Amino acid sequence: MTESWTPSLFRAQLRSAGLRPTRQRVALAQMLFGAGDRHVCAEALHGEATAAGEHISLATVYNTLHQFTRAGLLRALPVDGGKTFFDTNTSDHNHFYVEADGKMVDIPSESIRVEGLPAPPEGLKISHIDVVVRLVKDS
Amino acid sequence: MTESWTPSLFRAQLRSAGLRPTRQRVALAQMLFGAGDRHVCAEALHGEATAAGEHISLATVYNTLHQFTRAGLLRALPVDGGKTFFDTNTSDHNHFYVEADGKMVDIPSESIRVEGLPAPPEGLKISHIDVVVRLVKDS
DNA sequence: CTGTGTGCAAACTCTTTGCATAAGT
DNA sequence: ACTTATGCAAAGAGTTTGCACACAG
Questions:
Q1: Per-residue model confidence as pLDDT tens digits over A115-137
Q2: Do A110 and A93 meet the contact criterion of CB atoms below 8 Å apart?
Q3: How many domains does chain B have?
Q4: Residue A97 bridge partners (DSSP)
Q5: Which positions of chain C lie under 7 Å from any protein Cβ?
Q6: Which CATH number belongs to the domain containing residue B48 in this structure?
Q7: Domain span including residue A32
Q8: Which residue in A16, A41, A122, B100 has its CB near the most CB atoms, within 10 A?
Q9: Which is nearest to B113 in space by CA: A118, A119, A93, A113?
């Protein structure tokens, strides 16, 4: 999954998602998908882009993150305090949420199972199950 | 748990939580705990109080909800879109989250178990586990 | 009385939007 | 050229905060 990406692969990926491979989108794709699984929030990514010398407005970062999410390239993880993190790992996995510093950490195993789940109310079906394990400092 | 509460019971409960039983806090406690399990957001509760003829400012509602949460009388449930719901059921249970209308519904069973959970990272311990089952309209 | 709680409005954070400009094809 | 994306700044939702006044003990 995280082979050696090249700019043209990013462009192709964006194209097939129906997104024009603009400078900004390619740059963001590169940061997001070029280096393993990541959890970023919009502001952090914007800061990173700026630090890398790319000029991308915060609004564009937000737009792009949502476009990528719609295209299935990212998964949105809303957390406490109204921030939204975006996870480059779109597979069905779960997270530790470290309350102290507001960070998400992947649960290093796909082995979680949820047992004893009742049927959903009439007319609704399960989209997916989020298990968030909240962690606090071990006193 | 949801016996017939009386104002003086509310006052006692507030007292033992180290909170002075002010008019506003008693009124809010009454709305929250006087009628079974509830999921409310600050604005809804404020609207309800206003509708009931109580004059309580939104800021006070927020303050009070957080005080109650700190006192263990409520549980905070942050959901998508940056809103925070408060659940009067503080026991360890879980929720269906209906994406279509942003509502939480208690999962009508305590039988959910999470299996296969790895140990948390060094120095951290599990505070609690939230299982949120996201529901969408059944096609 | 004395300290805590409340109300108000302003501030704050995160996010979205409108519209002129710029870039992709 | 023609269309779609970007940037900016302003608006928006939800929540928090500072400070003077009010109320509980």
A1: 888 888 888 888 888 888 888 88
A2: yes
A3: 1
A4: A104, A134
A5: 4-10, 13-18, 23-25
A6: 1.10.10.10
A7: 1-139
A8: A41
A9: A113
